[in-house]
Amino acid sequence: MEQPGGRGDEPFAQGRPTAFDPPNTQRTAHEDDTQEQAGERRHEPQFRSRRWPPDGERHGHKSRDPGERGPDRRVSTEPFGSRETGKAASDYDVSLPLHLSVLTPDAVRAALARDSRLLVPVGTCEQHGPHLPLGCDTLIVERLADDLSADFSILRAPTIAYGVNTVTKRPYPGNAAVRRKTLHRWMNDLLGSWEQCGVDAFIILTAHGHDPHQEALSTLRTRRARIFTVDIFALDFTDYLEDPGGPTHGGELDTSLMLHLAPELVRMNLAQDYPLTERQVASYRRGAAGSVPALSPGSVGKPTLASAEKGARLYKMIRDRIATRVLGAVAA
């Protein structure tokens, strides 16, 4: 029997990070309420969603004509009818990502009447080495939320651009973090508001496996709505990477995805490999107990192995896996 508050649905356990490929996704709970991180910020300004260019333009192909519709268009203008035609709010263009922030209340009501699920991308603002932007995690889940929203005609919430950062032993300019309790309370408030508006299921997407961050997102509660927390880096990438056992913080995985999604933001000439010893890997994977080594460039792993071709294969696998194992399993 389905239980409220994000618990107990199979095959995906609500309220916990979705385990695509057990047992690799097992995590150990840690309490870090007193954790204070350098550069931590108490206020979270609104993060503007990145507007992705059409897929054709990104890969050098001819883009669609302005009036032609298609799921690869990333401009969220007039998604629920045009002023020229005077279409009703219910006559929305389902080929576009349904960004909650640009829709009217009537448009949101019409969309929820059709599909009561809501995609919620949660990122971070932290270093991933000298070659990647601070918003690496955020940009990946934003694009994923856009594509899944367009593919399934599901509403997608404004991006939560801050999370519980991985511990660092020295400060990095631009890093901004919140504590686990802060993220947890913030998300509970947001989900409560959206549930009152008619959302029956939340699919939270994140690309940050730090234990306190995951704990904040996997222990959220609602009155009745289901909650599915999806850590996209919990997938088994063994067949897609040359160094599948390495950490994912600014390494081959993150860098390949960014080379595919936003190559203009990646500076491969600055990428530095920083492989960890077995003991360091064990410590790093303990989450709250581990940290990015002080002598590292801010990333760990082997980003020099990354390529756009790998990123394209990785992204397709992530997108397809979530579409079939999460959205396909969560009824509207």
Share of helix among residues?
25-40%
Question: CATH class, anyone?
Answer: Alpha Beta
Give the name of the CATH superfamily.
Creatininase
Radius of gyration, CA atoms, in whole angstroms: 19 Å
Gross morphology is globular
In short:
By secondary structure, the protein is of the alpha/beta class.
Written overview of the protein:
- Residues 6-13, 21-51 and 54-90 have low confidence and may be disordered.
- The longest helix has 20 residues, at 308-327.
- The protein is of the alpha/beta class.
- It is 28% helix and 7% strand.
- Helix 6 (252-261) crosses helix 8.
- The protein has a single domain (88-327), classed as Rossmann fold, CATH 3.40.50.10310.
- The radius of gyration is 19 Å and the shape is globular.
- Helix 3 links the parallel strand 2 and strand 3 (155-156).
Helix and strand arrangement:
Elements: H1 55-58, E1 98-99, H2 105-114, E2 117-122, H3 136-152, E3 155-156, H4 180-196, E4 201-206, H5 211-218, E5 226-231, H6 252-261, H7 278-284, H8 308-327
